[in-house]
Design goal:
The complex is a heterodimer of chains A (101) and B (146). With 101 residues, chain A is α/β, with parallel strands linked by helices. Chain A contains 3 helices and 5 strands, in the order ββαβαβαβ. In chain A, helix 1 links the parallel strand 2 and strand 3. The model of chain A has no long low-confidence stretch (mean pLDDT 94). Chain B is of the alpha+beta class and 146 residues long. Chain B contains 3 helices and 5 strands. Chain B has a 5-stranded antiparallel beta sheet, covered by helices on one side. Chain B is globular. Classes of the chains: A alpha/beta (101), B alpha+beta (146).
């Protein structure tokens, strides 16, 4: 059985979604439906933890934008992205629109 | 390395696996691997998502090669004519653009351009051929000038 591409936890009243491995086009498609359902059902601030993510493609950026638009800018945060992953957000100009730490 | 892909998500996943193995064997730097895999995923993904018709899916061939200094990817598909080297629209520049106004997509080719050293396109008969060149030893977070 393969490892899950994301796991969830609630910490300090925030929904933490921890992603794992490579979030290329195929893997982003695989997480799309369960992730968006989770985001749509949540009324808590949402944190996407990318500390265990080694690769992202534009398909994952789409998921981040959709999630941020649902939660609102102040209630959505990208946490612990590696420099290479953060760089992709920068190329796309999203580091100016999404909270990242 | 020559790979013929199914024009679907499984084909994209196979491309990532096979290209990663090629790049490792070629001794490409970690950043080069990231750049090549990102550009291949975006370009091939664009073909999968947009080049098919209800009657036929395109055939995608990917050829990877290297020299001492460069990695070259040729992506050949049987979809309708499409030149990905035309610069995509830049990302919104104003940091105060409302989040709600951000488009969901449209960033794939922007990323592919940003991580590539050079792109060239030609229409050959009924096929598109895109050639992308990368530095073999790109430094971390290196975004080549295009």
């Amino acid at each position: 059985m393969s490892s899950p591409l994301f796991t969830t936890d609630t910490l300090d009243g925030q929904l933490h979604v921890s992603f794992h491995g490579r979030l290329d086009t195929a893997n982003s498609a695989a997480v799309h439906d369960p992730l968006i359902a989770l985001v749509n059902a949540s009324d808590q601030p949402i944190v996407f933890d990318l500390s265990d993510v080694t690769f992202i493609a534009s398909a994952f950026l789409r998921l981040c934008i959709m999630s941020a638009q649902k939660a609102g800018k102040e209630n959505f945060r990208i946490a612990q992205a590696t420099p290479a992953v953060r760089h992709v957000f920068g190329i796309a100009g999203l580091d100016r629109h999404l909270r990242m730490d | 390395m020559l790979l013929t892909l199914e024009a679907n998500l499984a084909g994209l996943a196979q491309l990532q696996t096979d290209a990663a193995a090629f790049l490792k064997a070629a001794g490409a730097s970690e950043q080069t691997c990231f750049n090549v895999l990102l550009a291949l995923d975006e370009v091939a993904g664009n073909i999968v998502m947009h080049a098919g018709t209800p009657l036929a899916q395109p055939i995608i061939d990917v050829r990877l090669s290297h020299t001492a200094d460069t990695i070259t990817a040729d992506i050949i598909d049987t979809g309708p004519p499409f030149d990905p080297t035309v610069p995509p629209a830049p990302a919104p520049s104003a940091s105060d653009d409302p989040l709600s106004a951000l488009s969901i997509g449209g960033r794939g080719l922007l990323l592919a351009h940003a991580v590539s050293q050079h792109m060239a396109y030609v229409r050959e008969g009924n096929r598109n051929r895109l050639t992308i060149r990368f530095a073999r030893q790109a430094a971390p977070d290196a975004t080549p000038a295009t």
